[in-house]
Amino acid sequence: MTLKVVVAGAAGGIGQPLSLLLKAQLPPGSTLALYDVVNVVGVGEDISHISTHVKVESHLGDMKNPDNEEIHKALKGADIVIIPAGVPRKPGMTRDDLFNVNAGIVRDLINAIAKDCPQAWVGIITNPVNSTVPVAAEILKKAGVFNPKKLFGISTLDVVRAQTFIGELKNIDPTKVNINVIGGHSAETMLPVLSQVQGVTFTADEEKKLNERIREAGTAVVNAKAGAGSATLSMAYAGARFTHSIVRAIQGENSVNEIAYVHVEGLSGIEAEYFGLQIELGKEGITKYHPIPKLNDYEQSQLKELIPILKSNIEKGVQFGTAKL
User: What is the pLDDT of residues 141-164, one digit of tens each?
Assistant: First the structure.
């Protein structure tokens, strides 16, 4: 099966390596459409030289310019749209500091998606994900095309990091580590469920240090890069991994398991409208929402603390998405 996959923000720090990975991984005959407001033609020319049977298109243009049709050309007929567009976090910045700029970028892209490919699967990387996903949902609701089974905040990097750190600590293959990281996609709102990792046990001290390392991993990268960027390469890997799961589901593979930040309103036991949890994907989107796994006392206390913060993040996104332009 051939697919059209769009990377919106393809010339950025995440977009370039993500596009590289997708050029290498997409099904033969597929189209990879790269969109950005700067530099994307050169990125597309470079990536197009990679010897896989995936067609590359480059689309350069300002979304706010009504005479520039490139965003619409990029999105028309898309099956999957992945959005890494936005400004990166710098030392001392929180994800909320990014909100005013990045929420506007997501709003404009989602408006175009609602017009040009309303049935596409949409994966949002742009931070703060806790708020930008609700922004996207409200825009899609306005357009009458909101499908909660096909809108995702890509929180895969939290899982990837947890697998890596547990693998290092316990000297085991990280790809074999099955770990749920639930809640939101920020240090204050994510909850690694270490108590349910099979085959290993953690001391109280190990659990505390792992929790802190997983939650603060994004800040560790920002600080290590000393103003030169945020987590771009690892996020690109995580974004490609999630996109590959979508591709597998579209191609008919049953019960593709992932963890993502999604709309969960109406699900029992979850007090927020959006929440990161394990889901199963099928041809038409999410087919199953797994319940919150069993939590120990420490994890239950952490969940209770994060919910009010997450609700506030969500409300910020909803207000932005419903505001008149």
Answer: 999 999 999 999 999 999 999 999
